[in-house]
TrEMBL record:
Protein kinase domain: residues covered: 30-327
Lineage start: Bacteria, Pseudomonadati, Pseudomonadota, Gammaproteobacteria, Legionellales
Enzyme class: transferase
PROSITE patterns tied to this protein: PROTEIN_KINASE_DOM, PROTEIN_KINASE_ST
Organism encoding this protein: Legionella brunensis
SUPFAM superfamilies registered for this protein in UniProt: Protein kinase-like (PK-like)
EC numbers, comma separated: 2.7.11.17
Protein name listed in UniProt: Serine/threonine protein kinase
Length: 501
């Protein structure tokens, strides 16, 4: 508990004046009897909008008796009292919140959200145990979207991470809606919303190292080195997703290890936590009705990917959004067989499951997808999978030139980008037979500009030879598409010249 709470708890509390831009002053009161949570940065209490019975000027937080005020119990707020030296993140502040100061301490007043948080043990989560599979999917989808909004729609300008995603920093609000007369009696009438709280550890997304902060059992390995990214936020979200889908306690083995090693340094504890991993015991068991094993296995394996030790083994933010969007749509389209098949394929591809590449019907389904969906899915694929997609296009004699072009272009772009990020030792082993990043960028330029003259020029004979002799399967597949295409353009140009002559 905070110092102020110990002093003021009871009928006497603190009046917090907040001056609005129009000059009007609003007053909030708390007697610190309703504790909403505590953390390393400060303590949070419930407060209320109020009015002073006998008007008087109050310009700073002031101790006051509760009976001097008219308390509006229908207008609650959350009041966070920061510990000395602690302040909200300078990179982001919750919308609709205000800051005041008292005795050198920062006080944050924000909207009070009535809902429940995600506890580690499912027995402490009665609301979660009552969720249907679709409702759990809907909450997971909202958590993903809300985290993406934190990452990319920061009003301060630069992209940021939350930095401390955990169960106590998430609120889930479920509201029962009034049914209309024309709606079926058994139709679900619930409105579910999710909110992220306490972004005190928010940081800009940078490639350079920053101060390592957060809750140990939620920290990704790279965060120990001060490297924050979208992936580190989603790693922290991972155990909450396990809980939503019914895991009995994702932290069971982690907490047991912590209890048996009370003197271990925090950074060493985190390394052990990551090696132990999150416990999936009980996953899906509480759902009265659930999907087939194929869908459940996809979800289980995808959750494990999100919390992979190696950042590069985790799905991208786009893949996570695609997966939970497709899963939600799959749940809603249960009566439409064609739509269900489409969403299932999107799930499989987003989860980086290669099984569809050997399934003739799913190959045809992919080739028949809307162009925008194809584009999105191709962007999620590895270069290796894309090269197999080229073979699928050839096998089915696909005339979709856009699809082939996008596969080739994105693959070359990714290979060229990868070459800039990897160490020279990696490049030496990866680009066998003299193929270098320089050749890849040159091939990409020729392909994008359809520059057959540059590609077939005598001056570039060595570059061309290196690419044609490359045995690396992904590059070989791209070259086998690009070279014939450029050759056809050259022959067409020559034919047109002969006709003119």
């Amino acid at each position: 508990m905070g110092e102020t709470a110990n002093v003021n708890k009871g009928q006497r509390g603190t009046l917090f004046p907040v001056k609005k831009d129009n000059g009007e002053t609003l007053y909030y009161f708390s007697d610190f009897s309703e504790d909403l949570g505590s953390g390393g940065a400060g303590d949070v209490y419930k407060g209320y909008l109020c009015h002073i019975k006998v008007p008087k000027s109050v310009s700073i937080p002031t101790a006051i008796n509760k009976d001097e005020l008219i308390i509006d119990e229908h207008a609650p707020v959350a009041i966070k009292l920061y510990k000395n030296g602690q302040t909200p993140s300078s990179h982001r502040q919750l919308n609709g919140s205000v800051l005041v100061h008292k005795d050198g301490r920062v006080i944050l007043i924000r909207e009070f959200i009535d809902g429940f948080q995600i506890q580690p043990d499912i027995e402490d989560n009665p609301q979660i145990k009552e969720l249907t599979f679709f409702q759990a999917v809907d909450i997971a989808w909202q958590l993903v979207i809300s985290l993406n909004e934190l990452h990319y729609n920061n009003t301060k300008g630069r992209s940021i991470v939350h930095g401390d995603v955990k169960g106590s920093n998430v609120i889930i609000r479920i509201v029962n809606l009034v049914k209309l007369a024309h709606q079926a009696n058994d139709a679900p009438q619930l409105k579910i919303d999710v909110f992220y709280l306490d972004d005190d550890f928010s940081k800009p997304i940078l490639r350079s190292r920053q101060t390592s902060q957060g809750t140990p059992e939620h920290l990704a390995l790279e965060v120990l080195d001060g490297l924050y990214s979208e992936e580190s936020d989603f790693y922290a979200l991972g155990p909450l997703l396990f809980s939503l889908f019914g895991a009995k306690n994702p932290f069971k083995e982690i907490f047991e290890f912590r209890k048996s090693h009370p003197t271990m340094k925090p950074e060493d504890l985190v390394r052990h936590y990551i090696e132990i991993g999150f416990c999936a015991e009980g996953l899906f068991e509480h759902f009265a009705s659930k999907p087939d094993d194929l869908i459940l296995n996809l979800v289980k394996n995808f959750l494990k990917q999100i919390v992979a030790k190696d950042k590069h083994q985790r799905p991208s933010p786009d893949a996570i959004l695609e997966f939970f969007t497709a899963l939600r749509q799959w749940c809603l389209a249960c009566q439409d067989k064609e739509a269900v098949a489409n969403y299932r394929l999107r799930l499989i591809i987003a989860a980086n499951d290669a099984s569809w590449l050997k399934d003739e019907e799913q190959q045809k389904l992919f080739l028949a997808l809307d162009k925008n969906i194809q584009t999105r899915l191709i962007n999620l694929m590895t270069v290796k999978v894309r090269s197999q997609c080229l073979k699928i296009c050839e096998h089915h004699d696909s005339q979709n030139n856009y699809l082939v072009h996008h596969i080739v272009k994105t693959s070359l772009q990714d290979l060229a980008h990868e070459s800039q990020l990897r160490e020279p030792s990696f490049l030496k082993s990866f680009f066998k037979h003299s193929v270098t990043p320089k050749e890849l960028k040159w091939l990409l330029s020729c392909f994008e500009h359809q520059d057959y003259e540059e590609f077939f020029s005598q001056q570039k004979a060595n570059l061309r030879k290196a690419l044609l002799q490359c045995s690396q399967s992904e590059i070989k597949a791209l070259v086998s598409v690009i070279v014939p295409g450029l050759e056809n353009i050259r022959l067409l140009a020559q034919t047109q010249e002969e006709q003119i002559i």
